[in-house]
Amino acid sequence: QVQVVESGGGVVQPGGSLRLSCAASGFTFSRSGMHWVRQAPGKGLEWVAFIRYEGHNKFYADSVKGRFTISRDNSKNTLYLQLSSLRPEDTAVYYCAKEEEYSSYYSYYYIDVWGKGTMVTVSS
Amino acid sequence: DIQLTQSPSFLSASVGDRVTITCRASQGISSYLAWYQQKPGNAPKLLIYAASTLQSGVPSRFSGSGSGTEFTLTISSLQAEDFATYYCQLLNFFPRTFGQGTKLEIK
Questions:
Q1: Exposure string for A80-105, b = 16+ CB within 10 A, e = fewer
Q2: Using CB atoms within 10 A as the burial measure, which of A8, A120, B96, B100 is most buried?
Q3: Which chain A residues have a beta carbon less than 8 Å from that of B67?
């Protein structure tokens, strides 16, 4: 079935780095845009980053721009998020999510598949 | 950036009630809106996209409406499994902002 599975979370000190991975299966990964969304403990959802299917066009939330890098390896069906210069406020569950397109008169791009998430804790 | 504001932030209701959650955009976004349900400890689940299109497998008691700047998610007759937090999200534009969430609790 269609699924995405995150890994790579853990505890890291402020200023440190971490790389998250997301393994995709059950769909044509190379044709799908992919997102990272995070959720701090007890808080709401925060969109983090997006990468188009071909890997060249990337978008970031202002809160992570210049510190986080989204990338993908379509040969491995894997999405990545490199987290650098981490801050305590980056502590969150990080979700990998697949984008779907619906086309009628207009096209709509929405998230239809979510992983279970991986926890990142930034603490000294 | 486009902001999404949900109301109310908290909602207390009973099984069988009809409830409505509102999401307002800071500028017109046509029908570029989705709704998600999230239960504690779980990932969000897509309910509705393109403002009013029900995702496959989602019960028909859920419906969405609106366009421009004001949108609503309606649950026609609350079931026990519907008590959760609901989020709206902007589609197509970046950043893909989420509303702050509406927590639906049992009265």
A1: bbebeebeeebbbbbbbbbbbeeeee
A2: B96
A3: none
User: Among residues 72-91 of chain A, which lie with CB inside 8 Å of chain B?
Assistant: none
Spatial distance between the Cα atoms of B37 and B74, rounded to a whole number of angstroms: 12
- Asked whether the beta carbons of residue B43 and residue A95 sit closer than 8 angstroms, the reply is yes
Closest C-alpha to A35, from A68, A75, A12: A68
B95–A47 CB contact, under 8 Å = yes
Tell me: the pLDDT tens digits for B46-95? 999 999 999 999 999 999 999 999 999 999 999 999 999 999 999 999 99
pLDDT at B107 over 90: no
Residues of A in contact with B46 (CB under 8 A): 110-112
Counting one residue from A and one from B, how many pairs have CB atoms under 8 Å apart? 67
| Dist CA B107 CA B99 (whole Å) | 23
Give the amino acid at A6. E
Residues from chain A that touch B96, judged by Cβ atoms under 8 A, are 35, 47, 50
Average pLDDT, chain A: 97
